[in-house]
Structure formats: structure tokens, C-alpha cells
Design goal:
The complex is a heterodimer of chains A (about 325) and B (about 700). With about 325 residues, chain A is mostly beta strands. Helix content of chain A is about 5%, strand content about 40%. Chain A has one domain: TolB, C-terminal domain (Neuraminidase), CATH 2.120.10.30. Chain A starts with 11 loop residues before the first helix and ends in a 5-residue tail after the last strand. The mean pLDDT of chain A is about 90. Chain B folds into two domains: about 200 residues, no CATH class; about 325 residues, TolB, C-terminal domain (Neuraminidase), CATH 2.120.10. In chain B, about 40% of the residues lie in helices and about 20% in strands. The longest helix of chain B has about 35 residues. Chain B starts with about 20 loop residues before the first helix and ends in a 5-residue tail after the last helix. Classes of the chains: A mainly beta (about 325), B alpha+beta (about 700).
Chain lengths: ~325, ~700
């Protein structure tokens, strides 16, 4: 759980160029080279960093997942588990049946006719970050859908899966938020022990980009062994007050801190323990960390939900600050 | 303000007479010094029982007298070595020195025919001479103790052999008898051999020396850490020299007693004695431990070895087999002792924090006043002395409007009116100054964590008023020392009431007291007439702010972890506290008077549902302190605090908060002064000030307490 070596703290996320976006969640690079990003219930497209974004599509509910196919299709998951497939102009393509899903956490085109979707299993009214760490039930699944075909469950019993990618051999691998590990569709662990609560996983030319919604916390990990306490917390306290990873770094009188997080002279110590954190990990082909970008306890670009490589630059989404971040050329920092 | 408080109608606060906890008893026993000697003592008992069971008539009076008669000189040599080892040295020459001193006594008595007192002096001088040589070489000249005393051991043995061979015939053929000489050698006083009395006297002297005397303390300091002792101003070399010399004198006495008893020496007198003494010492102290002055443990070690050795020989075992058995038994005792010590530290570390289930009253009486529910009134506060002070836990203003606060580096600083931008050290106190108060003469009274109650007069003279109170009745650990004097106030008769927030933790680890949730604190008083300190009420839960009510008849005491304010009746302190306010939304720190007859309460942090729940789960908190690093311990939110205003009846009437990320976050104190409120925080480096629109612009704290005529 400690951040050492290539995972050692830096301020790359804090120092990155940023564009404010309201309620961002996912990004994807379209077949035409545009950067698609979600903002609430809308999807925008960006031709070049620094230009004004163009509206791409608008949906009824907030967007929860975004992915593009080489042929120009764009799949969009929205809150409540709905899924739509659009063409390059943002118009809905008919024929993709919406399966019964609790949520669409991430999606990936397997071909122009087939789409893989991960469903973490938590409905729109369950605050996932609060609930998932204290939930033993593995409600997540990996589903494949064909155009005009019935959905097919590729893997069930996943614990809060959040991200999806293809490995070098073409197999599907999935990140598990709370278990902090990557598994494949057979449920076998590919790599475990990451220092964060995992978000999405994106294949790059040299390996993968993996986002973390927060840093794993020794106190939360310890309390998982205290069943009586956690049961009492679940039974008597509303989920928004539960201890667990958070999106926003703000202080709240309703929420505890860890003793080391006490401010000194009014300043938050960068090394203070915090329930929110910004972290993007660059992984090798073998899923081993080779680089990282951080926003530390005193930063504000926490809860990175998605990251892609676009025109050679690493672009990430910070949910806490509501920004699209451009970290510049990828590669482990010198 | 018309609201009045009815003391008799308030519910009584529960303050236990004593705290019962097996874990605490265990941890307090484990932290006692004498626990160190448990294994040697048990080994001693085992030897006694073992010998008692296997050999008949061993513990008869006659045999015990014999043991005492023949054991005393060995015991003295162990004590001599003990003194040297305590100073960080070692003395291998005790055996040779012992033989030489015995020879000196016999030579003076039988050959020179000197009177017995002179013989004693000669014997002591002989022992001292060897000690002086050892001390001069190992102490003053800084030669290695092992090589030096190995050298003197061989040299003295050589001198002894030469001299004794020359005089052996003269000594053994002497027919001199002397009453005193024989009395020392074989008589008894009160049934105990005379030379055993000598051992008892020397043992008591050594015990008193290590416990009470300056020299003894210096010896232990030098043995414990030579460098630190030097930095502490102790004359290290002289101390070591004197320790060797004293050891030599004790060996000289042992030699004299031996000579008086045996009237003879042989070529093997004292041979191997240094190993016998060293073994006894190591068994008693549980290893070769310099800087430890446990005389009783050393004597127990000596008795164990002596009786074991004696009993094995009595049982008719061959000498070499006795040695083998002794060695094996010693290794067993020492390895058990080493294990015990190692685990003792672990056990103590894991049992010290002793949480208890603890129910905090639900938040009450502050509806509509919580952060987010009302405007953040502290957001527009003036910031004074930013970056110039470190940790103003309490702030106070005197009659001339100057601002005073304590700092983390142990100073009391003055921030001069009207600009409040220049900080000047008013007095260097030390410790961690916390609560402040002004007395009738305008002197500043300071509660200092780690020290006690301190008074600083207008001439800036610092006087420690008290640092100790009465010992509680039912405690194993001595709790007389005031550990965390926190806040205070002065009653009309001049009596100072002050809180000792916790008896178990220091200022650096006060957070553990919340995790424990036990009534570890107490309210104390100091009477200026008698200069006596009294425990007014023991077993309070983190008593923090102390404030005299406006009528001067009651005393408010904040109980931080229970999120409540207690009230005492000054006319009847024995009756104990009642609850003044409960269910506060945060952790109350200092409490002070407001100009409208109400009070201000500083909230150092905010409670929240998860922390409140954790207080009901002592096991979770205890395991957390063991499994999780301290920086990750679950805690109340100390990054948000504020000020509550209550009326004279204890109803919350207003609240002052900063923005969530604002500079006035953990507020530990506030003082109203001429229409403004000054705010301090124990982890802050600034003082906040807000204007109070509705407040009396002429009201000051000193005038409220002592009237306007006084200063």
C-alpha cells in the first residue's frame, strides 16, 4: 500500500494543463482522431488541445462509460445501466439491443459487431465508493453483446469491476475497484497489490494506463477485518458518512480524519493520509508499474476516473476538480 | 441575559471513584521497575524449594548460620563488583585483591601485632590501593577496564604469592589471640554472625547510595550513558575512579572478615572469585547491565548462586560436576530472563492503550447552527501575527489590551496592542504552555504540559507554583506528577483551579487518550495561602477548559471527549460535578466568559457518526492502535473547529465557523475583549479576530474578574 519506487509521489497531475469540464467521467479517442469526453449527460469532441470542444451527443442521464471502435462507432453507457451506440456524427445506430444491466462501468469494442461491457452491479442510488469497500458480495460481471444478438455473460462473480482492456494476447482483463487487482475473464488474478482503488484500464502502445479513484488506505483495510463494527456502521449510519475512499478532498464536519491528517499552521501536509487522492499508474505489458502521476493530499485533482493517450499526450479526467488534464508526452518521468 | 442556571436541577455527572481494568493493572505492573527482577526472584525461589525438598535439614538455623558465616565475604565481593559494573566498568582483580587484603590483615595482626582497628584500616587500605590503581588506569587514564583489571589481577596475585610465601610460616606459627578479632571472626549478634552484619550494613549503604545519594545517581548515569552523563555536567572520569576505589575498599573489608574468620590464607585464596561474583551479578541483573542499581536483585542473584553451589557440593557431587551443573542452570535462568525482558516490552507496548466502550450523547441543542447551516462568520476574521507564533493554545488580553499566548517551543509571548503585529518573548518557561489566566495582581498564570502550574509576574519572573498533587488511592503507578496541566481559572478567594487533562499520556500522544476514552484526567486546585495542591475531582474524561461563572460561585469544566461541559459548585466541591451542557457537535476545548453573561466554547474539532460509533467499540480501537500506524488512526475531525456561544443557562445560542478550508480551523481558545473575539489554535500559527457587533465594547476579561479599579 505504500507509494515507493516508480510509484513514489510527484506532482504531475497538479502541474498538468487543465480544462474545466462539468461532471466529467470518461474519455475515448475516436476513429477520426478526435478526443471524446463526457460531461454529465453530454459527450463532447475535441479536435486539438486548446480548441473549443464541439457537442457530440446528448443523453437523458449522466454518461458512465465511453468507448470507440476503429470503424467509427462510439458506445456510451449511461447511469442506470443503459447503453447506446452512435456513429461518428453522434447519431444513434439502431440494432444494438440494451441488455439488463445495473450499470455500465466500462465498455470495449471487440469488433464492429461485438461489444464487451463491465457491470459493477451497483445501481444508480447506491454510492459506490462508500458501499463497495464494505461489500463482500461479488455482483459484477463481464458481458459481451452482438449487434442483433443476445447478450452473453463472459464472466460473473467479479467484485466491483471498473475497467476493461485487451491484453497483448487479445484476452479481456478487468480491474477490480476494491480488490485492487486485475483479473481475466476466467476470474484468475493477473496482478494484485496495487496501491489504489482501481478505475479504468487502457491499452497503450507500450503497456497500459490505469487510473485509481483513490489511494488504498491502511485504516480502511484494517476496518475490513472488523466485522462487528462495519455491520453496526452499515446498520446505523447513512452511507454518505461511512468511512472509505472519497472523490473530493474537502473537509466535512460529518466525516472523520486520520490522526496524521491534522493540518499544521492551516496547511494540509502533502504526505498526510487522505481518503481522496489522484493517481494514474503506467503499467508495462506485464502489468507491472513503470511510472505514475500523482495529486497528493494537499492537491485537488483527485479521483482520476479515466486516462488515454491522445496525439502522444497523456490525457486524464479528474472527477474531484472537474477537469480534463493534459500531462504531456507519456512515459515514465525521468 | 436573563437566563439563569439552576445548579441543583442539573443531572449529576458520573465520575467513578476508581478505574478498574485488568489490562491497566497488568500494564502498570509491567512498567514498574521491580518487574525487571521477576525471573531472578523466581529462580531464587526455585533453588530454595529445590534444595529444601532434596536435602534434609538444609534450612535449619545452624546451617543457615553457617551459610551466613561463610557467605558474607563472597557477598561483599559481589557488591564491590556491582558498584564497578554499575559505573560501566568491570573488575577482574577482585579475587586477587581479596586474597591480598586478607593477607594484609593477617600480616598486620600476626606479624606486626597491630591492634584490630589498625588491622582493619590496613586491610581496607590494601583493597583501596588496588581500587585506586584500577580507577586511575581505567577511569582517569581511559585504559580499557577489562585489560587494566586483568593486569592488576595477575600483578596482585603475583605480589600476593611472593609476600604470602615469605610470611606463611610466621603467620601460621603466631599464637596471638585477641577478643575483638575472634568476635569478628566467629561470634554472633542477635543470633546472626558478625560478618553477616557487615554484609547487611554494606548492602544497605549501597542501596541507599544508588537510590538517594548524588554520587550513586552519578554512577548510574555514567554507567547508563557515558556521553549523556558528560553532557549533563557529571565528572565522568572522577566518578569512575571513585567507583573503582569504593569497590576496592569493599573488597578490602571482605578480605579482612575472611582473615578474621580463617586466620590463614592459602595459595588458592580468592582464585576464581571474580567469576563467582560476575555470575551472581549477571543472574541478579539479568545480564551484564551497566547503569542499573538494583541492589536487592544483585543480592538475590548472589544468594541463588551461593546456595545452589553450596547445596550441590553438600550433596556430595564432584567439583567439576558441580561446575557443569551450575553453568547449565545459569544458562537456563539467563535465557528465560532475556526472553522475559524482550516480551515484557512487547506486552507493555500492546497493553498500555486500554480503550473502553464509551457512549457520547447525541448531538443536541445546536440545530440550525452547524457548519453549512449558517454563514461562515469566521471567514472574514482579521489574521494577527501570522507566521510569527507557533501553536497559541490559549490567548489572553490584559488590561492594557496586550495579547499573550504560549508557543510550542515553551515561551510565553506578548503581542503588543494596538497593531498586534510584533511578537516579543515575554518569558521563557519551557514545557508546552497551554491555558492562561490573569490573577488579581495582573500576573499571568500558565498551565504548562509536562511541567505544571507556572506564574509569570509583570517583571517577567517565572515561578513554578506546583508540579505535584496527592497520589490517588487506587493506583499502582505513582500519579502524583501533574502530566498535562491544560487550563485554569482563579476563584474570588485566589484559589487556582486547573485541569490535568490526562495522567496517562504526554502532549505528543494526547490523541491516544481519545482512543482510550477513559476518565484519565482530574481537576486540581492550588491554594495561594498554603501553597498546597489538592485533587478536587479525580477520574474526569479529558477535563480541558476551566472557567469561573460570572457570579463567581460555580466552575465550568469542559470534558472534551464526552462533548460536554461540567459544572462544580465552589461552595461544595466534594459533591462532584453536574452536567451543564451535553451533546455538543464538537470537542470542547477552552471555555471563557462572554460580555453578555454567557460563555464562549472553543471547539477543537468536530465529532462525526463514524468516530462516535468507534467509541462504542473498544476492541476495534485497541486493535487499531496495534495494527495500524498512528498517522492512520481514526480520529475526530480536527481540521474543522469553531466557537459556540452559550447563554448563562447553557443553551447554545450562536456558532462561529470558518470556511471548510479556511485558516481558522482547530480553535482551542477564544477571548472576548472590547467588542472583539480573539481566537487561538494549538496547531495554528496565527490568531484570528472578529468584531462582535452586539457585544459590549468596553467589556474586558480582567475587569470582569477583578473589577475596573484593579489593573
Amino acid at each position: 500500500m505504500t507509494l515507493e519506487g516508480v510509484l513514489g509521489p510527484n506532482n504531475r497531475l497538479e502541474e498538468a494543463r487543465g480544462v474545466p469540464v462539468e461532471a466529467p467521467e470518461a474519455v475515448s479517442v475516436g476513429a477520426d482522431g478526435r478526443l471524446l469526453f463526457s460531461s454529465g449527460a453530454a459527450v463532447f469532441a475535441l479536435r486539438k488541445w486548446g480548441e473549443a470542444p464541439q457537442a457530440f451527443a446528448q443523453f437523458e442521464r449522466p454518461v458512465t462509460a465511453l468507448c470507440s471502435s476503429p470503424g467509427g462507432l462510439v458506445a456510451v453507457g449511461t447511469l442506470g445501466g443503459a447503453l447506446r451506440v452512435c456513429d461518428e456524427s453522434g447519431l444513434t445506430v439502431k440494432g444494438w439491443a440494451a441488455p439488463e444491466l445495473a450499470a455500465v462501468a466500462d465498455a470495449l469494442f471487440l469488433s464492429e459487431d461485438e461489444l464487451a461491457v463491465v457491470d459493477h452491479g451497483y445501481t444508480a442510488d447506491e454510492p459506490l465508493l462508500s458501499v463497495a469497500p464494505w461489500d463482500d458480495a461479488a455482483r459484477g460481471k463481464l458481458v459481451a453483446l452482438r449487434r442483433d444478438g443476445a447478450p452473453r455473460v463472459l464472466a460473473g462473480g467479479l467484485h466491483c469491476p471498473m475497467g476493461l482492456a485487451r491484453d497483448g494476447g487479445g484476452a479481456l482483463i478487468v480491474t477490480e475497484f476494491e480488490r485492487a487487482r486485475i483479473v481475466d475473464s476466467s476470474g484468475e488474478t493477473r496482478q494484485a497489490g496495487y496501491p489504489g482503488y482501481l478505475g479504468r484500464l487502457r491499452k497503450t502502445a507500450s503497456g497500459y494506463l490505469m487510473t485509481c479513484l483513490s489511494r488504498r488506505d491502511p485504516l480502511v483495510e484494517f476496518l475490513k477485518t472488523e466485522k462487528g463494527f462495519v455491520d453496526a456502521m452499515k446498520a446505523t449510519i447513512p452511507p454518505r458518512y461511512w468511512i472509505g475512499p472519497r472523490i473530493h478532498p474537502e473537509f466535512s464536519p460529518d466525516f472523520p480524519i486520520e490522526l496524521g491528517a491534522t493540518r499544521l499552521f492551516g496547511a494540509i501536509k502533502p504526505w498526510a493520509p487522505s481518503f481522496s487522492y489522484g493517481l494514474v499508474i503506467e503499467l508495462s505489458d506485464a502489468l507491472m508499474p513503470v511510472g505514475s502521476a500523482h495529486s497528493r493530499a494537499d492537491g485537488r485533482r483527485h479521483a482520476v476516473s479515466d486516462a488515454v493517450v491522445w496525439n502522444g499526450d497523456l490525457v486524464a479526467v479528474s472527477k474531484a476538480s472537474g477537469e480534463l488534464l493534459n500531462l504531456g508526452p507519456t512515459g515514465a518521468p525521468a | 441575559m436573563s437566563a439563569q442556571f439552576e445548579f441543583a436541577a442539573a443531572p449529576k455527572a458520573r465520575t467513578p471513584y476508581f478505574v478498574v481494568s485488568p489490562r491497566r493493572v497488568l500494564s502498570e505492573i509491567l512498567s514498574k521497575g521491580w518487574v525487571e527482577s521477576t525471573v531472578p526472584f523466581v529462580a531464587f525461589l526455585c533453588v530454595i524449594f529445590g534444595v529444601g525438598l532434596t536435602s534434609h535439614g538444609y534450612f535449619t538455623i545452624d546451617n543457615l548460620r553457617n551459610l551466613a558465616l561463610y557467605g558474607s565475604d563472597g557477598g561483599l565481593v559481589v557488591l564491590a563488583l556491582f558498584v564497578v559494573v554499575a559505573a560501566g566498568g568491570i573488575d577482574l582483580s577482585v579475587g586477587s585483591n581479596f586474597a591480598m587484603s586478607a593477607f594484609a590483615a593477617l600480616y598486620c595482626f600476626h606479624v606486626l601485632n597491630l591492634p584490630v582497628p589498625i588491622v582493619l584500616a590496613a586491610s581496607l587500605a590494601s583493597g583501596a590501593a588496588v581500587g585506586v590503581v584500577n580507577g586511575a588506569l581505567a577511569g582517569l587514564a581511559g585504559c580499557g577496564a577489562l585489560l587494566t583489571t586483568l593486569g592488576t589481577m595477575i600483578t596482585v596475585r603475583g605480589v600476593y604469592t611472593l609476600a604470602s610465601q615469605g610470611q606463611l610460616v610466621a603467620i601460621s606459627s603466631s599464637a596471638r589471640t585477641d577478643e575483638v578479632w575472634d568476635w569478628i571472626g566467629s561470634e554472633r549478634v542477635l543470633g546472626v554472625p558478625v560478618n553477616f552484619w557487615a554484609l547487611i550494613l554494606v548492602a544497605v549503604a549501597v542501596l541507599v547510595m544508588f537510590r538517594q545519594s548524588r554520587f550513586g545517581w552519578h554512577v548510574l548515569a555514567v554507567g547508563g550513558n557515558r556521553k549523556a552523563a558528560r553532557h549533563g555536567g557529571i565528572r565522568v572520569k572522577a566518578t569512575i575512579f571513585l567507583a573503582y576505589t569504593l569497590g576496592g575498599v569493599i573488597v578490602g573489608l571482605a578480605g579482612f572478615l575472611y582473615a578474621a574468620r580463617e586466620n590463614a590464607v592459602a595459595s588458592d585464596t580468592g582464585v576464581g572469585m571474580e567469576f563467582f561474583a560476575l555470575t551472581a551479578l549477571v543472574v541478579g541483573l539479568g545480564g551484564f547491565v551497566p547503569g542499573r542499581g538494583s541492589t536487592v536483585a544483585v543480592l538475590i542473584g548472589f544468594a541463588t548462586i551461593y546456595i545452589l553451589n553450596n547445596a550441590l557440593l553438600n550433596a556430595g557431587l564432584r567439583g567439576d560436576f558441580v561446575q557443569l551443573a551450575m553453568g547449565a542452570i545459569l544458562i537456563v535462568i539467563l535465557s528465560i530472563d532475556t526472553k522475559f525482558r524482550k516480551h515484557k516490552h512487547r506486552l507493555l507496548a500492546s497493553t498500555y492503550v486500554d480503550p473502553v466502550a464509551f457512549e457520547v450523547d447525541a448531538v443536541a441543542g445546536a440545530k440550525g447552527l452547524l457548519p453549512g447551516e449558517i454563514a461562515a462568520k469566521l471567514a472574514g476574521a482579521d489574521i494577527l501575527a501570522a507566521g510569527l507564533i507557533d501553536g497559541p493554545e490559549d490567548v489572553i488580553l490584559d488590561a492594557d489590551d496586550h495579547l499573550f499566548c504560549g508557543t510550542r517551543d515553551g515561551r510565553l509571548v506578548r503581542i503588543a496592542a494596538p497593531g498586534y503585529d510584533e511578537v516579543e518573548t515575554f518569558a521563557q518557561i519551557g514545557g508546552r504552555p497551554l491555558g492562561l489566566a490573569l490573577d488579581r495582581e495582573g500576573r499571568i498564570l500558565v498551565c504548562v504540559a509536562g511541567m505544571g502550574l507556572v506564574r509569570v509576574d509583570r517583571q517577567r519572573q517565572v515561578e513554578l507554583l506546583t508540579d505535584q498533587t496527592q497520589r490517588s488511592l487506587f493506583t499502582i503507578q505513582d500519579d502524583t506528577t501533574i502530566r498535562m496541566a491544560d487550563d485554569l481559572d482563579v476563584a474570588p478567594d485566589g484559589t487556582i483551579y486547573f485541569s490535568d487533562a490526562t495522567k496517562r499520556y504526554d502532549i505528543e500522544s494526547w490523541g491516544l487518550d481519545l482512543l482510550e476514552g477513559r476518565p484519565n484526567g482530574r481537576l486540581l486546585s492550588w491554594d495561594p495561602k498554603t501553597r498546597k495542591t489538592r485533587t478536587v475531582c479525580d477520574n474526569l474524561v479529558f477535563p480541558n477548559g476551566v472557567c469561573l461563572t460570572h457570579d463567581g460561585r460555580h466552575l465550568l469544566v469542559a470534558s472534551t471527549w464526552t462533548c460536554s461541559l461540567l459544572i462544580f459548585d465552589l461552595a461544595d466541591m466534594r459533591a462532584g460535578p453536574r452536567v451543564f451542557v451535553h451533546g455538543l457537535p464538537g470537542y470542547p476545548d477552552n471555555v471563557n466568559r462572554a460580555s453578555d453573561g454567557g460563555y464562549w466554547i472553543a471547539l477543537a474539532g468536530m465529532r462525526n457518526p463514524v468516530t462516535d460509533l468507534a467509541m462504542r467499540f473498544p476492541g476495534v480501537r485497541r486493535r487499531m492502535t496495534r495494527a495500524v500506524a498512528p498517522t492512520h488512526w481514526l480520529f475526530g475531525n480536527l481540521n474543522i473547529g469553531g466557537v459556540l456561544k452559550i447563554d448563562a443557562a447553557g443553551r447554545v445560542v450562536d456558532a462561529y465557523w470558518d470556511e471548510p478550508g479556511g485558516p481558522l480551523y482547530m480553535i482551542t481558545s477564544m477571548r472576548e475583549h472590547k467588542g472583539a473575539l480573539y481566537l487561538g489554535g494549538v496547531t495554528n500559527n496565527k490568531i484570528g479576530r472578529i468584531r462582535l457587533a452586539a457585544a459590549d465594547p468596553s467589556w474586558t476579561g480582567p475587569a470582569s474578574y477583578w473589577g475596573k479599579a484593579e489593573r
